[in-house]
Protein backbone atom coordinates (compact mmCIF):
# COMPACT_ATOMS: atom_id res chain seq x y z
CA UNK A 1 0.00 0.00 0.00
CA UNK A 2 1.44 3.40 -0.89
CA UNK A 3 1.70 6.34 1.51
CA UNK A 4 -1.11 8.28 -0.18
CA UNK A 5 -3.53 5.61 0.97
CA UNK A 6 -2.69 6.10 4.65
CA UNK A 7 -3.70 8.34 7.50
CA UNK A 8 -1.64 8.81 10.61
CA UNK A 9 -3.60 7.80 13.63
CA UNK A 10 -4.56 7.26 16.16
CA UNK A 11 -1.84 9.44 17.56
CA UNK A 12 -2.35 9.20 21.29
CA UNK A 13 -0.44 11.80 23.25
CA UNK A 14 0.32 11.89 26.93
CA UNK A 15 1.85 15.29 27.66
CA UNK A 16 3.04 16.33 31.10
CA UNK A 17 4.03 19.99 30.86
CA UNK A 18 3.96 22.34 33.79
CA UNK A 19 0.35 23.44 34.31
CA UNK A 20 0.15 27.16 34.84
CA UNK A 21 -2.22 29.86 33.66
CA UNK A 22 0.11 30.92 30.85
CA UNK A 23 1.12 28.60 28.07
CA UNK A 24 4.71 27.51 28.70
CA UNK A 25 4.59 24.36 26.54
CA UNK A 26 2.47 23.76 23.47
CA UNK A 27 1.85 21.24 20.73
CA UNK A 28 1.56 22.60 17.20
CA UNK A 29 0.07 20.32 14.55
CA UNK A 30 0.64 20.95 10.85
CA UNK A 31 -1.80 18.91 8.79
CA UNK A 32 -2.41 20.72 5.52
CA UNK A 33 0.76 20.04 3.56
CA UNK A 34 0.23 17.98 0.39
CA UNK A 35 3.91 16.98 0.30
CA UNK A 36 4.85 16.87 4.00
CA UNK A 37 6.90 20.07 3.81
CA UNK A 38 6.12 23.06 6.00
CA UNK A 39 7.19 26.63 5.34
CA UNK A 40 8.89 28.20 8.40
CA UNK A 41 6.33 31.04 8.33
CA UNK A 42 3.32 28.73 8.01
CA UNK A 43 0.71 28.81 10.75
CA UNK A 44 -0.12 25.43 12.28
CA UNK A 45 -3.47 23.77 11.61
CA UNK A 46 -3.97 23.44 15.38
CA UNK A 47 -2.17 24.71 18.48
CA UNK A 48 -2.82 23.26 21.92
CA UNK A 49 -1.42 24.59 25.14
CA UNK A 50 0.08 21.66 27.06
CA UNK A 51 -2.46 21.85 29.87
CA UNK A 52 -5.32 21.73 27.33
CA UNK A 53 -4.46 18.20 26.22
CA UNK A 54 -6.03 15.48 28.33
CA UNK A 55 -4.09 12.24 28.83
CA UNK A 56 -5.06 9.85 26.06
CA UNK A 57 -6.06 12.60 23.60
CA UNK A 58 -6.15 11.25 20.05
CA UNK A 59 -5.32 13.21 16.89
CA UNK A 60 -5.82 11.95 13.33
CA UNK A 61 -4.21 13.34 10.20
CA UNK A 62 -6.36 14.54 7.33
CA UNK A 63 -4.15 12.72 4.83
CA UNK A 64 -0.78 11.01 4.88
CA UNK A 65 1.26 13.90 6.30
CA UNK A 66 1.37 15.12 9.87
CA UNK A 67 4.04 17.26 11.48
CA UNK A 68 4.14 17.79 15.24
CA UNK A 69 6.11 20.61 16.79
CA UNK A 70 6.52 20.78 20.55
CA UNK A 71 7.38 24.25 21.78
CA UNK A 72 8.84 24.76 25.25
CA UNK A 73 9.41 28.18 26.68
CA UNK A 74 11.47 28.50 29.85
CA UNK A 75 9.61 25.85 31.86
CA UNK A 76 10.69 22.35 32.75
CA UNK A 77 8.47 19.34 32.27
CA UNK A 78 8.51 15.56 32.30
CA UNK A 79 8.25 15.56 28.53
CA UNK A 80 5.80 13.41 26.64
CA UNK A 81 5.05 9.91 25.53
CA UNK A 82 2.92 9.15 22.51
CA UNK A 83 1.99 6.23 20.33
CA UNK A 84 1.29 6.35 16.61
CA UNK A 85 0.23 4.08 13.81
CA UNK A 86 -0.41 4.36 10.10
CA UNK A 87 -3.89 3.18 9.17
CA UNK A 88 -5.17 2.54 5.68
CA UNK A 89 -7.79 4.98 4.43
CA UNK A 90 -9.63 1.87 3.29
CA UNK A 91 -10.50 1.28 6.97
CA UNK A 92 -12.74 4.35 6.85
CA UNK A 93 -14.74 3.90 3.65
CA UNK A 94 -18.52 4.14 3.87
CA UNK A 95 -20.61 1.46 2.24
CA UNK A 96 -22.42 4.11 0.23
CA UNK A 97 -22.12 5.44 -3.29
CA UNK A 98 -21.52 9.19 -3.50
CA UNK A 99 -24.21 10.56 -5.81
CA UNK A 100 -23.51 14.26 -5.21
CA UNK A 101 -21.24 16.32 -2.99
CA UNK A 102 -21.67 14.79 0.49
CA UNK A 103 -24.77 12.86 -0.55
CA UNK A 104 -24.66 9.07 -0.45
CA UNK A 105 -26.99 6.28 -1.55
CA UNK A 106 -26.74 3.07 0.42
CA UNK A 107 -27.25 -0.04 -1.73
CA UNK A 108 -25.99 -2.82 0.56
CA UNK A 109 -28.28 -4.46 3.11
CA UNK A 110 -25.62 -4.14 5.82
CA UNK A 111 -22.60 -1.91 6.18
CA UNK A 112 -20.85 0.99 7.85
CA UNK A 113 -21.31 4.74 7.41
CA UNK A 114 -18.62 7.34 8.14
CA UNK A 115 -18.86 11.10 8.12
CA UNK A 116 -16.75 12.86 5.47
CA UNK A 117 -13.02 12.86 6.35
CA UNK A 118 -13.60 10.48 9.31
CA UNK A 119 -11.68 9.97 11.58
CA UNK A 120 -10.45 13.51 10.94
CA UNK A 121 -12.48 16.45 12.25
CA UNK A 122 -15.92 16.97 10.75
CA UNK A 123 -15.96 20.06 8.55
CA UNK A 124 -17.95 23.20 9.39
CA UNK A 125 -21.05 24.15 7.40
CA UNK A 126 -21.46 20.69 5.89
CA UNK A 127 -24.86 19.19 5.19
CA UNK A 128 -24.59 15.51 4.31
CA UNK A 129 -27.33 13.12 3.26
CA UNK A 130 -27.36 9.34 3.45
CA UNK A 131 -30.19 7.77 1.48
CA UNK A 132 -31.22 4.28 2.56
CA UNK A 133 -33.81 3.17 0.01
CA UNK A 134 -36.84 1.21 1.12
CA UNK A 135 -36.69 -2.57 0.68
CA UNK A 136 -39.95 -4.47 0.69
CA UNK A 137 -40.27 -6.74 3.72
CA UNK A 138 -37.28 -5.18 5.53
CA UNK A 139 -36.75 -2.68 8.33
CA UNK A 140 -33.82 -0.34 8.53
CA UNK A 141 -31.88 -0.51 11.78
CA UNK A 142 -29.42 2.33 12.30
CA UNK A 143 -26.99 1.97 15.21
CA UNK A 144 -24.50 4.63 16.23
CA UNK A 145 -20.99 3.51 17.02
CA UNK A 146 -19.52 6.91 17.79
CA UNK A 147 -21.11 10.31 17.42
CA UNK A 148 -19.00 13.34 18.25
CA UNK A 149 -20.56 16.46 16.79
CA UNK A 150 -20.15 20.09 17.74
CA UNK A 151 -22.60 21.84 20.06
CA UNK A 152 -24.56 23.37 17.19
CA UNK A 153 -24.71 20.23 15.01
CA UNK A 154 -27.95 18.35 14.53
CA UNK A 155 -28.92 14.97 13.18
CA UNK A 156 -32.21 14.74 11.32
CA UNK A 157 -33.70 11.37 10.48
CA UNK A 158 -36.47 11.41 7.92
CA UNK A 159 -38.61 8.33 7.55
CA UNK A 160 -40.66 7.66 4.47
CA UNK A 161 -43.08 4.87 3.70
CA UNK A 162 -44.45 3.53 0.46
CA UNK A 163 -41.70 5.31 -1.45
CA UNK A 164 -43.00 8.75 -0.47
Automatic annotation (TrEMBL):
GO terms for cellular component: plasma membrane. Gene3D superfamilies: Spermadhesin, CUB domain. It comes from the Eukaryota. Keywords: Disulfide bond. Residues 102-164 form the CUB domain. Pfam families: CUB. PANTHER family: CUBILIN (PTHR47537). This is CUB domain-containing protein.
